[in-house]
């Protein structure tokens, strides 16, 4: 069982100021990161708007989680440019300050999928909860009293015999199965933040 890091609720929260996302990264104490390893900039990547960074510091004890978050009553409002910009800013901040690596992701109208690796002393539920609150703030204000998100989230730890690439291949085709695009590469709400080295 992982020990929860005491992280302020404002951890890597992105707020909209006009058309710009302002990212604030705060913690009550410096993060405890595993020793050894360095980051290196990617020399190759999949076809995205900019190359994702390679995370060399992936420790044997740090599992890769496959996460799914759904909107309340599966309402379709996540495919918004403000949500995408905020989503990208959030894991970039988390990687820099808390050693959290978000790999590939797909944002669908009513749910999102992402792969993430994080240190054992950082609580996954707390991190996902902060991500959901941050993305909710990026949406236009509504007079509805309904929540933005379905309660909780779905998570699955990739076993050593599971292929990250094969799992991603299925996930990235979600927009095709939903009839949104004919080619997965044409879906603008998908990408990769950090290259996670998993077979």
Instruction: Kindly report the CATH topology.
Output: Alpha-Beta Plaits
How many individual domains? 1
| Average predicted local confidence, pLDDT | 74
Which architecture per CATH? 2-Layer Sandwich
Radius of gyration: 16 Å
Number of strands: 9
DSSP helix fraction? 10-25%
Please, what is the CATH homologous superfamily? Transposase IS200-like
Largest sheet, in brief, is: 5 strands, antiparallel
Class of secondary structure makeup = alpha+beta
Unreliable runs: 1-60
The main sheet orders its strands as 7-4-6-5-8
Explain this structure to me?
The chain is α+β, with helices and mostly antiparallel strands and 199 residues long. It has one domain: Alpha-Beta Plaits (2-Layer Sandwich). It has four helices and nine strands. The chain has helices spanning 81-98, 124-138, 164-172, 174-177; strands at residues 13-17, 20-24, 53-55, 64-70, 101-107, 111-117, 154-157, 190-192, 194-196. Helix 1 (81-98) packs antiparallel against helix 2 (124-138). The longest helix has 18 residues, at 81-98. It is globular and about 45 Å long.
Question: Which descriptors would you attach to this protein?
Answer:
alpha+beta; 5-stranded antiparallel sheet; Alpha-Beta Plaits; 199 residues; single chain; 4 helices; disordered N terminus; two-stranded antiparallel ribbon
Layout of helices and strands:
Elements: E1 13-17, E2 20-24, E3 53-55, E4 64-70, H1 81-98, E5 101-107, E6 111-117, H2 124-138, E7 154-157, H3 164-172, H4 174-177, E8 190-192, E9 194-196
Parallel strand pairs: 3-9
Antiparallel strand pairs: 1-2, 4-6, 4-7, 5-6, 5-8
Helix pairs in contact: 1-2
């Amino acid at each position: 069982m992982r020990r929860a890091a005491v992280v302020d609720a404002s951890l890597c929260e992105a707020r909209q100021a006009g058309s710009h996302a302002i990212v604030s990264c705060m913690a009550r104490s410096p993060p405890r990161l595993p020793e050894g390893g360095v980051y290196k900039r990617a020399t190759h990547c999949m076809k995205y708007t900019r190359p994702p960074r390679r995370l060399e510091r992936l420790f044997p004890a740090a599992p890769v989680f496959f996460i799914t978050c759904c909107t309340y009553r599966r309402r379709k409002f996540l495919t918004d440019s403000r949500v995408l910009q905020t989503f990208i800013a959030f894991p970039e901040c988390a990687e820099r300050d808390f050693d959290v690596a978000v790999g590939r992701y797909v944002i669908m109208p009513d749910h999102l999928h992402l792969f993430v690796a994080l240190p054992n002393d950082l609580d996954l539920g707390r991190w996902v909860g902060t991500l959901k609150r941050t993305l909710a703030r990026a949406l236009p204000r509504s007079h509805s009293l309904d929540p933005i998100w379905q309660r909780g989230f779905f998570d699955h730890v990739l076993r050593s015999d599971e292929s990250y690439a094969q799992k991603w291949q299925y996930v990235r085709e979600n927009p095709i199965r939903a009839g949104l695009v004919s080619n997965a590469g044409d879906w603008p709400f998908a990408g990769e933040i950090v290259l996670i080295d998993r077979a």
